[in-house]
TrEMBL record:
Domain Hydroxymethylglutaryl-coenzyme A synthase C-terminal: 257-386
Binding site for (3S)-3-hydroxy-3-methylglutaryl-CoA: D29, Y143, K242, N276
Organism: Staphylococcus nepalensis
The protein, known as: 3-hydroxy-3-methylglutaryl-CoA synthase
NCBIfam families: HMG-CoA-S_prok
Gene Ontology biological-process annotations: acetyl-CoA metabolic process
Lineage: Bacteria, Bacillati, Bacillota, Bacilli, Bacillales
Active-site residues annotated for this sequence: E79, C111, H233
Binding site for substrate: G148
Short name of any one Pfam family annotated for the protein: HMG_CoA_synt_C
Enzyme Commission number(s) of this protein: 2.3.3.-, 2.3.3.10
Gene3D superfamilies hit by this protein: 3.40.47.10
InterPro entries according to UniProt: HMG_CoA_synt_C_dom, HMG_CoA_synth_N, HMG_CoA_synthase_prok, Thiolase-like
Family label: Belongs to the thiolase-like superfamily. HMG-CoA synthase family.
Length: 390
């Protein structure tokens, strides 16, 4: 019996801003964004797309009527919570029409929470062969206009169906977590934007990776040549590359270095055109690896590093399942990214301010959405009302 990822899908809003144009508007050398942090485009979230609608949109295309009867738990991982009491999983459960006798919870630890959600689902399903757990990572990364973190914003959601005998990735029983109390990135209650110590954040990320990786290697007597590729939490694509480079030391053979470096490029291709989606970033990277790396084979082991500021890191692994590509929506994901609408920096700023002020402009923001998409229609008396586009 194995447990792992049976289906995986992502959703991003239908708008993006070109990072070179954003750099020019901010009077910054475009290469600082394109090369320095490794980002080409940044997904822009309209007011009509929040963590609930994006999460439901990511999940709706991988859920069948039979799945709705078998899902016994829905977990949403987010650091963009819209309520301090009610779990967004409850609203997503309703939108998707999942059977009523299901647990619904929300989990938080910065960008890390989707990983313990998966581990919880894995343990829960060990003795429940006929049940499924839906794990959703959904976030909008916002740092403020013209802030230092602005070029590392983004928005999107990843949905994963966790089951026994999965069709995509079998999860191994080898996770190692590392926790350290550090104020590298945090958002006090009531604060619209996070507080960030940029230099400390980079150092804390790399330190967490090295600690969890070294302990993983020590416990399991495993070296880097065991892995076909590695996936990282990717707030921006250069961040994970710095962590990878930190362990590709002189004693690592060139073949392993080339294989892991090539794999990293494939694993961050989608992220380069979406930006930071917090809890979903690692799993968007996993999708990117599975769909754009052309030398993966059944039985290959993939290492994954999950990180959440504050901080918790975790290194774990999974084994690729025979026929995994048949369970992926490669063309659908390419179409989603390729058919988005580029908006000007001025329009992006208008979107950003509407989001801050809870102001809707459906005529503009729904103009290019697909039929059947969930969206936030209105907010009355602090109650969020969702609808689907006909």
């Amino acid at each position: 019996m194995t447990v792992g990822i049976d289906q995986i899908n992502f959703y991003v809003p239908s708008f993006y801003v070109d990072m070179a144009k954003l750099a020019e508007s901010r009077q910054v050398d475009p290469n600082k964004f394109l090369i320095g942090i490794g980002q080409n485009e940044m997904a822009v979230s309209p007011m009509s797309q929040d963590i609930v609608s994006m999460g439901a949109n990511a999940a709706k295309d991988i859920i069948t009527e039979d799945d709705k009867k078998q899902i016994s738990m829905v977990i949403v991982a987010t650091e963009s919570a819209i309520d301090s009491a009610k779990a967004s999983a409850v609203q997503i459960h309703n939108l998707l029409g999942i059977q009523p006798f299901a647990r619904c919870i929300e989990m938080k630890e910065a960008c890390y929470a989707a990983t313990p959600a998966i581990q919880l689902a894995k343990d829960y399903l060990a003795n429940r062969p006929d049940e499924k757990v839906l794990v959703i990572a959904s976030d909008t990364a916002r740092y403020g206009l013209e802030s230092g973190g602005e070029p590392t914003q983004g928005a999107g959601a990843v949905a994963m169906m966790i089951t026994q005998n999965p069709r995509i990735l079998e999860l191994n029983d080898d996770a190692v977590a590392f926790t350290e109390d550090v104020y590298d990135f945090w958002r006090p209650s009531g604060q619209s934007y996070p507080l960030v110590d940029g230099a400390l954040s980079k150092d804390a990320y790399i330190h967490s990776f090295q600690e969890s990786w070294n302990e993983y290697a020590r416990r399991h007597h495993i070296s880097l040549d065991y892995f076909k590729s590695l996936c990282f939490h990717v707030p921006f694509t250069k961040m994970g590359k710095k962590a990878l480079d930190s362990i590709l030391t002189d004693d690592i053979d060139e073949q392993t270095k080339e294989r892991l470096t090539s794999g990293y490029d494939a694993a961050t291709y989608y992220n380069r055109y979406v930006g930071n989606i917090y809890t979903g970033s690692l799993y968007l990277s996993l999708i990117s690896l599975l769909e754009t790396h052309h030398e993966l084979n059944a039985g290959d082991t993939i290492g994954l590093f999950s990180y959440g500021s504050g901080s918790v890191g975790e290194f774990f692994s999974g084994k690729i399942v025979e026929g995994y590509r048949d369970a992926l929506d490669i063309e659908g994901h390419k179409n989603l990214l390729n058919h988005r609408t580029e908006i000007s920096v001025d329009t992006y700023e208008a979107f950003f301010k509407r989001f801050d002020n809870l102001e809707f402009n459906h005529e503009v923001e729904l103009a290019n959405e697909s039929k059947g998409i969930f969206y936030l229609e209105s907010i009355h008396n602090h109650i969020r009302n969702y609808n689907t586009l006909n």
